[in-house]
Amino acid sequence: METVSFIHMADGTREDYAFLEKHEAEYVKGLPTRVYEALQKLEHSFSGYKVSRLTHSLQSATRAMNDGRDDDYVVAALLHDIGDELAPYSHSEMAAAILRPFVSDKLYWIIKTHGVFQMYYYAHLTGGDQHARERYRDNPWFDEAVEFCEHYDQNCFDPDFPTRPLDDFMPVLQRVLGREPAFGETQTA
Ligand SMILES: [Fe+2]
Ligand SMILES: [Fe+2]
Questions:
Q1: Residues 160, 33: contact at Cβ < 8 Å?
Q2: Distance 43 CA to ligand 2 centre (A)
Q3: Whose CA, among 109, 127, 137, 158, lies 20 to 30 Å from 24?
Q4: Is 68 left (phi over 0), alpha (psi -120 to 50) or beta?
Q5: Which domains does the chain have, with CATH numbers?
Q6: 6-22, pLDDT tens digit by residue?
Q7: What pTM did the predictor assign?
């Protein structure tokens, strides 16, 4: 079999879907490499800052690594702005969706809401609500979301910081994104 038999999913057979499952499993193995390539593209996203979006992301991950954060946190830091290219109005959600099957609910939530928490540093200067994050005040992970933005995001625009290159993070990307997903079968929709 080189392709499935159907042109409408409703007509697929058990064999068709077993065949596709094998292909998908093979494809998923390339996820760390595809994420690596998506990160490389951040070198050419938003301009105007003193560092590229890639350097910002690498600086975030470097600081997390230097602080002895675990693999999951380092990868979350590295990916937190990966949505900038394709989801400029919901970039936090995009990064969180990539991480979700591989990290804790807490870390998923921190990344998913970081765009709102980050507003604390600039929204009062742009006509927005600096305190928008207060809507999450009762969440048990509130303080850790504040911490992420304070130590691994708002301070990561420094061209003089000794930032590690992307290749240094390939092993940790492979460890985290190469894991069995926590809710595998719901991911194929
Ligand atoms: Fe962000
Ligand atoms: Fe960021």
A1: no
A2: 13
A3: 109
A4: left
A5: 14-179 (1.10.3210.10)
A6: 999 999 999 999 999 99
A7: 0.93
